[in-house]
Each structure stands twice: as C-alpha cells, then as structure tokens.
C-alpha cells in the first residue's frame, strides 16, 4: 500500500516539468479560469516571495505584484491542472529564502538587482544554462611589484 502511494506521488511529479524557481524571481503565470461556460487564460506576473513544499508533489509559490498601488498576492500550487505554464522573466539577487519583508516596502523601495533572462538567446541553450548557474569568475588583479 505504501509503495503504491509513493509511486502515485512520483507520477504526479513527473507529469509537469519542474523548473528551478527561487525567491526573488519574477515569473509570468498562465492560469486557466472558468467563468460560466467559458474558459480563458489569465496571466499573473509578479515576484516570488516564498516557495513552500520543496520536495512535495504539491509545491506552492507565493507571487506578489502591485496593481494600481495595491499589493496583490496569489498562492499558486504548481501541480494544479489550472496552471498552464510558469515562465521565468527575471532573476534577482536576494539573500533570503522568504521575502515577506517586501510587503512593508513601497514599490520604489522594493526594487532589486535583476538579471534579464529573456535577453539570452533561445537558440543557444549553453548561455541560458550559464546564466541559470550564475557562475562568476573571480577577479584576478595583478599587482605590479618593482
């Protein structure tokens, strides 16, 4: 019985492509919404301030945006069937896993140092991987000694 549950959870995780999201990423989430008999796609773009359930099959992200001067947050389960896709737009350099302090800041105060992901050419995946790894070569300053 326990093995069946583990297999079921592994199948659920394998259904969706999992991307490596971090707090501080700006993402564009496409949600499928039913209104009456019609179905449409709504896009929610904002900053990831928290990620919960990391090893679980029901991983959730908390995305925050400021709309017309009002902060709006949405908790999005990544394993949901209503989530069509989650697209990474920018990646910020942050020092914390949870960015709840952003709630108290104004929009201007909450600006961060971003790396734009879209500028990397899509035809060259090597450059994209290098940007994801964010490897920084150490500076080698040669001192002149006389």
Care to describe what's here?
- With 146 residues, this protein is an alpha+beta fold.
- It has one domain (2-133): SH3 type barrels (Roll).
- The protein has 2 helices and 6 strands.
- The chain has helices at residues 2-15, 125-133; strands at 25-35, 38-52, 60-67, 70-77, 83-92, 114-116.
- The protein has a 6-stranded antiparallel sheet with strand order 4-3-2-1-5-6, with no helix packed on it.
- Strand 2 (38-52) and strand 3 form a beta hairpin.
- Mean pLDDT is 76; it is low at 133-142.
What attributes characterize this protein structure?
6-stranded antiparallel sheet, alpha+beta, 146 residues, SH3 type barrels
How are the SSEs ordered, and which strands pair?
Elements lengths: L1 H14 L9 E11 L2 E15 L7 E8 L2 E8 L5 E10 L21 E3 L8 H9 L13
Antiparallel strand pairs: 1-2, 1-5, 2-3, 3-4, 5-6
Alpha carbon gap, first and last residue = 76 Å
Number of strands: 6
What would the average pLDDT be, to the nearest integer?
76
Q: Which structural class do you get from the secondary structure elements?
A: alpha+beta
The ordered H/E elements are HEEEEEEH
């Amino acid at each position: 019985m326990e093995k069946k549950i583990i297999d079921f959870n592994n199948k659920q995780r394998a259904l969706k492509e999992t991307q490596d999201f971090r707090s501080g990423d700006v993402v564009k989430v496409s949600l499928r919404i039913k209104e009456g008999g019609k179905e449409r796609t709504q896009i929610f773009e904002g900053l990831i301030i928290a990620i919960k359930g990391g090893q679980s099959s029901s991983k959730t992200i908390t995305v925050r945006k400021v709309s017309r001067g009002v902060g709006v947050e949405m908790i999005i389960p990544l394993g949901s069937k209503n989530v069509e896709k989650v697209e990474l737009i920018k990646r910020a350099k942050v020092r914390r896993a949870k960015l709840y302090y952003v709630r108290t800041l104004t929009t201007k105060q909450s600006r961060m140092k971003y790396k734009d992901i879209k500028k990397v050419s899509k035809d060259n995946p090597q450059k994209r991987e290098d940007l994801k790894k964010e490897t920084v070569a150490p500076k080698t300053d040669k001192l002149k000694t006389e």
